[in-house]
Design brief:
The chain is α+β, with helices and mostly antiparallel strands. It contains seven helices and 19 strands. The chain has two domains: about 70 residues, no CATH class; about 220 residues, Fumarylacetoacetate hydrolase, domain 2 (Alpha-Beta Complex). A seven-stranded mixed sheet has the order 7-6-17-11-12-14-8. Strands 4-3-2-1-5 form a five-stranded antiparallel sheet. Strands 9-19-18-15-16 form a five-stranded mixed sheet, with no helix packed on it. Strand 15 and strand 16 form a beta hairpin. The longest helix is centred in the N-terminal third of the chain and has 13 residues.
Length: about 325
């Protein structure tokens, strides 16, 4: 795996009798992060990310000693994983950030294939999804009634680990705590305001298009940034009912993750726990006219991070 190193642990949120807890996944077993590390504040992933400068080393040390620890553990196979960041402060989503996807969407709308935005002096651009859109691995996405053109979009998601403002490009990745897998479900037919002329500047409705309940499943965990040698060299795949629809590599992004962080942080402070969804490659339903329906199962996978699936209802 060209873009990854050997992972020492994965940071998850899992269901317990006491409610959701932060867990460390080590060699197929799940440990309570707070109990294994001896840090009460690490009971939640939010608490860990708020202290990431210290937590990064503390968790690595705890994971290294997990096998000999007396701390209670449970098999990963019998553990219910939840969204690793249940309530991110903000979810930033990069728009049209893969050349092949941008070209396919342009052709679909009868527009010329857009040139490399760098050649035009353009910068990354984003939209925001509500924290209420978060869903976990295995969750049922109840959206078939909401949209007739329900689409899929696999995306590499970066989790911010410390406040970031006016970050220089060469230091941008140092603000990333880790990476997870995301699916940016989109209600294509809800993105156009009814009764507004198609040529109007005000025709789009991004909230109805992108921010419906369950439209941002993430998981299955967070892989620490130190275990990802190069986030621009990770393979991405998505299947619908076992049929491969998207098969690409993060190296095909138009704007790298570092460029995205640098741009977002201009005069705005990114917070620990913020998610940056970095765009989707070609193979979406909007390109082919095929959309999701009740009963469909969508599976996503990113090299070195993991995989999960969701059922549409």
């Amino acid at each position: 795996m060209a873009g990854t190193k050997r992972a020492g642990y994965r940071l998850a949120t899992y269901q317990t009798k006491e409610g959701p807890r932060a867990g460390l996944v080590v060699d197929g077993e799940v440990f309570d992060a707070a109990k294994l590390s001896g840090k009460a504040a690490y009971a939640s992933v939010a608490g860990i990310l708020a202290d990431w400068k210290s937590a990064e080393g503390a968790l690595k040390k705890a994971a290294a000693g997990a096998a000999k620890s007396r701390a209670k553990r449970q098999p990963l196979a019998k553990t219910k994983l939840l969204a690793p960041v249940p309530q991110p402060p903000t979810i930033f989503c990069a728009g049209a950030n893969y050349a092949d996807h941008a070209a396919a969407m342009a052709r679909k709308s009868g527009q010329p294939v857009p040139p490399d935005p760098h050649e035009q002096g353009l910068k990354p651009w984003f939209f925001i999804k509500s924290a209420a859109t978060i869903a976990g691995p295995g969750a049922t996405i109840k959206a078939a009634h909401y949209a007739k053109e329900l689409d899929w979009e696999i995306e590499l998601a970066a989790v911010i680990g410390r406040p970031a403002k006016d970050v220089p490009l060469d230091k941008a990745l140092a603000y990333v705590a880790g990476y997870t897998v995301a699916n940016d479900f989109s209600a294509r037919d809800r993105g156009r305001r009814p009764g507004v002329d198609a040529t109007s500047f005000f025709k789009m409705d991004w909230t109805k298009h992108k921010s419906f309940d369950g439209s941002c499943p993430i998981g299955p965990w967070i892989v620490p940034a130190s275990d990802i040698a190069d986030p621009q060299r990770l393979g991405l795949k998505l299947w619908v009912n076992g049929v491969l629809k998207q098969d690409s590599n993060a190296g095909k992004m138009l704007f790298s993750l570092a460029e995205q962080i640098a741009q977002l942080s201009i005069n705005m402070t990114l917070q620990p726990g913020d998610l940056i969804l970095t765009g989707t490659p070609s193979g979406t339903g909007a390109e082919s006219g095929e959309f999701l329906k009740a009963g469909d199962v969508v599976k996503v996978w990113i090299e070195g991070i993991g995989e999960f699936e969701n059922k549409i209802a």
